[in-house]
Amino acid sequence: MKIDEAMSTFVSGHVMIGLATRDWAGQASIARGVGVRVTDNGAGLDILISGRQWRRSVENLAANGALASTFSSPTDYITYQFKGHAELAAAGPADLVLARSYIAGMRARLADLGVPENVAAQWFSDEDLRCARLGIELAFVQTPGPRAGEVLAT
After folding, report:
1. Residue 46 belongs to what domain range?
2. Would you say residue 16 lies in a domain?
3. According to the model, what pLDDT value does residue 25 have?
4. Alpha helices (H) along the chain
5. Is 149 among the domain residues?
6. What pLDDT, in 10s, does the model give residues 88-136?
7. What is the pTM of this model?
8. Which long-range contacts (CB under 8 A, 24 or more apart) does 32-35 make?
9. In DSSP terms, which residues pair with 17 in a beta bridge?
10. Considering its fold, how many domains does the chain have in total?
C-alpha cells in the first residue's frame, strides 16, 4: 500500500504520533513518536522513537516488528492509522535534526492550544533515538465519526 502526497504532508506535519506494539504474548505497549519521514514513494514510514522513554515498545519492535501507528491532529482530531511490520534501526544525525524540529513544533502547537509546557515536555524525548522503518500494509481512517475504522484505498 502507498499513501498519496496529501497523506504524506499530513503525517509529516505537526500531528501527534501514537505507536502501539505487542510482545510475543500479545501484551500491548504504547509510545509516542517524535518525527516521521515518508519513504519508498509512500509505501513506508520511518518513525522516530526514544529508546529511553519507550524502552518496552522498542524491545517489542526488535522482537517481532508488529506496529500500529496513528497520526492525529490535536486541533480537529483528524486521525489516520497505519499498520504493518517495522524493522528497528539506529537513528542517524539527520534523524536527530528531524526529531528536534518535530518536538519544537509540537510543543509550540500544543502551547497554542493551552497545553502547559511542563505537560508537553513529558511527552517527547529524543534520548536514545531509534528509527522504526514501517512497511505500510493497512491504512485506516480513525477520525471520530461515521468513517472511523474505514480502510483507506491503496
Report:
1. 5-141
2. yes
3. 92
4. 5-11, 55-64, 93-112, 117-120
5. no
6. 999 999 999 999 999 999 999 999 999 999 999 999 999 999 999 999 9
7. 0.95
8. 32/123, 32/124, 33/69, 33/132, 34/99, 34/102, 34/103, 34/124, 34/125, 34/126, 34/129, 35/95, 35/98, 35/99, 35/101, 35/102, 35/103
9. 71
10. 1
